[in-house]
Design brief:
about 200 residues, alpha+beta, 5 strands, elongated
């Protein structure tokens, strides 16, 4: 030890002179002292669930090819006939749009996944996805259109979709209807409770 270390140690001893040791066998268990609280565990679980939700699960495996001029449509059980008919006719305001022209299949997959997730989180209910007809796409015609048809069915927030009317891109685009997010459901409950 150097001289300054000796001096510091002596000062420490003088300061600790009147300290008496604790009596008893109780010693804190540091293993449990740092266990996360219930709230911390719940926040971690919610973060992990959100992370899982954001993992792109859309498949690039086998796809049923559709024709470039084919109408594509889908709706989940519970979507009212009138609602689907208005979607099909393009009578809803499109709140967002995604253009997939000049996208590779991999880029389109990422774009569609992110677009639907972002729309859902933002509370957007109707959107337009422009996939193109793909008459000249290689190796197969309408490849991106075929995958969009598959991917949208795989995504839980998607309630329905239908090929667009001519002014909105015709059979090279699709109208999309999304579920209400949790915030919108809560507002809806509050609105109906006031009646």
């Amino acid at each position: 030890m150097s001289r300054s270390d000796d001096q510091e140690f002596e000062l420490f001893r003088q300061e600790m002179n009147d300290v008496t040791p604790l009596v008893g066998e109780e010693v804190a268990d540091i293993r449990t002292a740092f266990e996360p609280t219930l709230a911390q565990k719940e926040r971690r679980r919610a973060a992990e669930a959100e992370e899982q939700e954001n993992v792109n699960f859309l498949s690039t495996e086998y796809v049923d090819l559709v024709e470039p001029d084919e109408v594509i449509e889908f709706h989940r059980d519970g979507v009212q006939t009138g609602v689907f008919k208005r979607l099909k006719q393009g009578r809803y305001t499109m709140e967002a749009s995604l253009n997939l022209h000049h996208h590779t299949l991999r880029e389109a997959r990422t774009a569609v996944f992110n677009f639907v997730q972002d729309c859902y989180k933002a509370g957007i209910r109707t959107a337009l996805v422009i996939h193109g007809q793909g008459k000249h796409s290689k190796p197969h015609p309408a490849l991106i259109k075929s995958y969009v048809n598959k991917w949208l069915r795989e995504m839980p927030p998607v309630l329905a979709f239908h090929s667009a009317q001519r002014p909105h891109g015709g059979r090279g685009a699709v109208y999309l209807m999304l579920k209400k997010n949790a915030e919108q459901k809560q507002k809806n409950r509050e609105q109906h409770a006031k009646r």
